[in-house]
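[Solved] Which block belongs to which protein?

Original post:
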Amino acid sequence: MHIDPNGYLGIGTKNPKQKLVVSNNEAEGFEVYLDPATSFVGLQSCNRAVNTYSKMQLDASRFSFIYGKVGIGKLNPSTELDVNGTIHSKEVKVHMAGWSDLVFKKEYNLPKIEEVEKHINEKGI
């Protein structure tokens, strides 16, 4: 571990370039930083041997990670993934094992519309 005169902390490196740098060795690792101008939290992985870097910045006002729950556009997520906005995805997989889908079976007796209306009027659901 190394702390330089600027207050930069290096773990596995003696030449940290950000406030916190964690490295397997001097050639590769990741850097965590806070950009004071934008309040973005950043994570940069690097492999200096082949001079490749990949960077990710998170706007702390739009992204949160609290107790295993991720919020995007929501600072206090109430579920594992809580998005306040539009999700664009190439593919979504939903696993329904253990969920009831009896209503799709031929032998399932659907209630009459009058029974459904009565239930909604009584229970609000």
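(Second protein starts here: sequence line, then its structure tokens.)
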Amino acid sequence: MNKIKTLLGGIALSASLAGAALAAGVEVNASSTGLALQGYDPVAYFTEGAPTKGSYKITSVYEDTTYRFSSDANKATFDADPEAYLPKYGGYCAFGTAMGIKVDGDPTVWAIIDDELYLNLSTDIQERWNSDIPGYLEKAEGKWTEIEHEDPAVLLQ
């Protein structure tokens, strides 16, 4: 039980930090400038199998959020079907979503499950997530419909 309290405490702290960084709206975890995934290329997770920093010179804006790409080919792939490459839960931590809160997803702590990109807050949180992915996915899907449009800071009150 203490491990869970510690994990949730860390998530709560991140949520308060995440709330101040939102620009694109509460549905997407973006910086104050509207940059998603901290500038990582969303397509590269699928094509390179690794988080890859995008270039400020190669960008697309989708639903008021800016995405960067490591190549023109990745940008074209994204532009053809953006929904296929967007991280689940707006790029918020998948485990946090399952707990009913929104916290930063670290673009270097990720997994592709059933052709969907999921981020987690940290490797410790991802270990917890990995202990029951089907169960946490089910919880997260249910919680996301409740919290998608909520401000992260409000969820901590």
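Accepted answer:
You had them paired correctly. Confirming on the second one: Confidence is low (pLDDT under 50) at residues 1-7, 10-24.
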